[in-house]
What we know:
Blueprint: H1 7-34, H2 41-66, E1 70-84, E2 88-95, E3 98-102, H3 104-109, E4 115-120, E5 127-134, H4 154-164, H5 168-175, H6 180-189
Antiparallel strand pairs: 1-2, 1-4, 2-3, 4-5
Amino acid sequence: MMPQLSPRGRLIRDAVIYTPIFALCLAVLLFMIAGVIDRAPVALVLLVIVTFLFGYQSIQSLRDLVAEPETVEGPVLRRWTKRDAFVAKSYYVAVNKAIFRIPVDAYMDTIVGDTVRIVAYPHTGTVVEVERLKREEKPAPEEAPEPEARPATGRMRTLRTARATPSARRQRDADEPGGRDTARKDEGEL
Length: 190
């Protein structure tokens, strides 16, 4: 298990991982465009996409390394969990049209409707601190009146009737003087 990194440590880790890959992809892309490397159209398109994705992560991490964390305050609009790469479970909340990945402790402490203060880096959304300010108390539900009993219809009537009434065979056996039920009672007496 990996040790927990501080928010600043996560930014540094992301910058160290994504920046060299971005630089390598960008260099290969430029060589392909210049004609130094044979440029297959499919490979060129794939390389443009990969370069954009790694570049975005790299640039956002580098921008947050020089920026100060900002404070966002507001109600939790939505909360959910997601498995990242089928291994690690991450916890997310949406506050003021922004999505933040928060620690599990803060996730368990908040519910939808709570007012929270989140201190996070502005470009990557890396959370520094989560604080619940106010929990919206819901009034106790009033006693609901008992619903009126309505006669069953359709399939429910068939099922209820089948359980509530004996079958015709049982009824016939019970009515006959030497029927099955009488024979069972006689056997029990012996």
